Amino acid sequence: MAHVGTSSVLDWTKLDIYHWLCKIGFPEYGTLFEQNSIDGSALLFLTENDLRNPPLSIEKLGHIKKLYHEIHILQLDNIPLIAKLGYDPYCVINNIPNECRREIGNYFCPAEHVTPDIYPLGMDIDDRTENLSRSKKLKPEVWKTVISLVYLFVVTWITAFVMVIVHNRVPDMKKYPPLPDIFLDNVPHIPWAFAMCEFTGTLMLIIWIAVLIFHKHRFILLRRFFALSGTVFLLRCVTMLITSLSVPGTHLQCNPMVEELQLDNGSYHSVWVKARHAYFIWRGAGMSVQGVRTCGDYMFSGHTAALTILNFFITESHEHYSIDVFIAFYITSRLFLYYHTLANNQALMQRDSNRTRIWFPLFSFFESEVDGIVPNEFETVGSLAQNMIRWLRRHWRIWYRLSMRREITPIPEKSQNSESVNRQYFRDRNKKES
């Protein structure tokens, strides 16, 4: 038996349908659905008329409406499955008659069954399906974003430390000349290309920050950026450490760090010295414009992983082999594509959630509350300012209440004792006068 909610609806059996009915509060219709052989695929195409008319003939109007509402939600969550079966999801969800079907790869719906209210004219089926597939609940989940930031922070430190290790293992340039490379052998060396790549990367980072400032779902974007960046550079640590390639160009001066520091007593091998070198690389983000100079970290290119579209500048600077650039471009672009394909397709996530948790643990954790495509919605400067003011007011009130609670202290016992003493004094005085 498949577990309801974790498997594809198409795999649901009659027993799964009964569990689903119990879950939504209609167990009394389990026998009725079983008698009519309603499984997952049949449930996905039930309409309100099917519930109302024979052979189901549900009599209570409230039950019909509530039950169809749950079926409608199920249809919205499984739009890709409906399309995969050859039906137009928009027609199925809006109860348009079954003349609406897919023919020769295109969607065809008769005009007499189309109304402007539910089927906008001139709207492409892909746009309609995309609108239906958009996420209906987008929680910021700031705490997950913080966890992804910590993940990236740890990975960058690991990367910096691995770069220190591979720098010390770089092959001797006198014994091991540059490897044959079809691009580097035919493209002249351009000295300013590598610096231009890093300056362009800085410009792209500024644009990315501007997008985050105005995007309504900035925390989801940040979470995905941190998770993908951390995963790519963690994979880069493995490829750098496994095999040390020779220096790709004779213009580069690369020697092991022990020779550069001239530490014959072997003190460089201490963890503390390597940690200081790793901090220097981490602080400069591995960029040559920040004074960072590393060797041996070739497979695969960290610059191309950050700037896949600018790999031409890296190749012409002769700072990496062509295979480094190609592998970095392929891994980064494919990982981004596969991640968002799974995130945008709720059916793929539900089909085998247990296997997804095993093979993609970070994805399952970070995308557990995202049920569709994240729309590109931006805030204006005015709305952004209003949100900032509202946020400051809310936190100011919290801080003010906490400060007021600290200032309000209970009456000390000394003052209470003095008051009782005064009362006793006046009593004694009145007795004497009387």
UniProtKB/TrEMBL annotation:
Sequence intervals crossing the membrane: 146-170, 190-213, 225-247
Main location: membrane
Annotated Basic and acidic residues bias: 425-434
GO biological process, one term: ceramide biosynthetic process
Pfam families attached to this UniProt entry: PAP2_C, SAM_1
PROSITE patterns reported for this sequence: SAM_DOMAIN
Keyword Coiled coil tagged: no
Membrane topology classification: Multi-pass membrane protein
A GO term, aspect molecular function: sphingomyelin synthase activity
Residue ranges annotated for the SAM domain, each copy included: 12-77
Superkingdom classification of source: Eukaryota
Amino acid composition bias (Polar residues), ranges on this chain: 414-423
Region (Disordered): 413-434
Localization in the cell: Membrane
Keywords carried by this UniProt record: Lipid metabolism, Membrane, Sphingolipid metabolism, Transferase, Transmembrane, Transmembrane helix
GO CC annotation terms, alphabetical: endoplasmic reticulum membrane; Golgi membrane; plasma membrane
Family listed: Belongs to the sphingomyelin synthase family.
Protein name: SAM domain-containing protein
Gene source species: Polyplax serrata
Lineage: Eukaryota, Metazoa, Ecdysozoa, Arthropoda, Hexapoda
